[in-house]
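Bug: token stream looks shifted between consecutive jobs. Job 1:
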Amino acid sequence: MVKAEWNGATVAQSDETVMIEGNHYRCGEQSYLKPSTTTTKCPWKGTASYYTVSVDGKDNPDAAWYYPDPKPAASEIKNRIAFWRGVRVS
């Protein structure tokens, strides 16, 4: 079981993750996630969209990202979420 934790809460957990470039991409609960307008581009994965992680009134802007329409080489991570910016993944 891989968990993502921030501000005392488990914001995501999954038995099924895809590991790419050291990041666990998982499907899962989105109750702690708020949409962000931020996007970035990766030359081989495509355009990433972001979420702000929000727990108990505290926000961690753009601490989660996903690829809604990845390039074919990264198709296995379509709509799977990964975390960073202080979100502990273990």
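Job 2, same session, no restart:
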Amino acid sequence: MEQPQPRKLYRSQPDRKLAGVCGGLGEYLNVDMTLVRVLSWYWRCAAEQGLVLYLAMWILIPEPSKPQPPTGN
């Protein structure tokens, strides 16, 4: 039996609002991107580290090497 490939975290191309970080997290965690965006905005407003973490993720999470097909939301 073949081992499944591990999932990798990438910034989203089709579900991008600013940098694709929230869309990529939603795809990786298999949750609605809107929920990730709402929680992200809440966290950025409630904690000073939220904006710094978002910027760090923008820099550290790579974009996919090939274009992803659009997801049907």
